[in-house]
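FORM 7B - TANDEM STRUCTURE REPORT

SECTION 1: FIRST PROTEIN
SEQUENCE AND TOKENS:
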Amino acid sequence: DQVDVLKEHILEYLGEIYKLEMTDKQGGELLLLIKGIDDIERIADTVRSDVIPLARAAHAQDVESTDTTRHILQALYQKVCLAVQQATEAIGDVDQNKALEVINMKSEVDGLIDDALQYQASRVAPTTPDSIATFRMEDDVIDAMRRIYRLSKRVAKLMLPDVISIKEA
């Protein structure tokens, strides 16, 4: 909810800026900021609607993952948090290097996701309701982290329109 309030204040401020006389370049930069704000809000929505309820459910149900699963998911979480931080700093600092760092994290994030899924597959097939619930919860966490990283990458790409258009051509 705080993110929504903050977004509204930022959009009001950007709306005031939009009323000023701007060059085409400044207008384009303003549009990028607005797009970035939307993606950052989507990240916050994913945390609010997916990650927090999953954490609460895991705590309430006393779900216990293995040490290996916790280690893998923690490494994924830390990498995704870094991506969010770097992407927002790339926008705030108008820093293409930070944006490139986020985009270049893709193989590492994908590797961490693959590690988590492979470890899950290597464990004994779930036969109890508790183990099925644990697997389902782990999958939901992995999916949320994947979505958050993809949104972070979208924010970062806003800083690299020339690089992205060349790559996509």
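SECTION 2: SECOND PROTEIN
SEQUENCE AND TOKENS:
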Amino acid sequence: MTGGGIITIDGRAFDVPVIKLERQAEFLDKYAERVQSGELKRELIGVYYNYSLELGATSNKEEYHALWDKLTEPKEFHQVTLPDNMGMYTFTAYIAGVKDGIIYAKGSNRIMDGLTCDFIAKAPARRA
């Protein structure tokens, strides 16, 4: 997946090269326990859509730095818009696991690569 401006966080679109965007549906229970008969009894709260993002190398230092600052902003939650199979999906999430690396450095010239992070949903996308 490539393209610019595909990620929007708190109303700002970022023009960065997306390598991979994965989503995962997490089912969260209020309780889940086995009863005497061996059956599982559970009360499902809902299904949460969480995303993992991987970006490619970019020479656009300003845009990359702005995205890094946004991803590492000490804020509890962010409004995030990402693509899905039907268009764009907007949700409130916290950001976790932000990391990257330098693939080229000579003098003051740097090329960053491998920026990854996770967007963890605050509320269920679907309720039981």
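SECTION 3: OBSERVATIONS ON SECOND PROTEIN
The CA atoms of residues 72 and 98 lie 7 Å apart.
The longest strand covers residues 87-106.

SECTION 4: SIGNATURE
Preparer initials: ____
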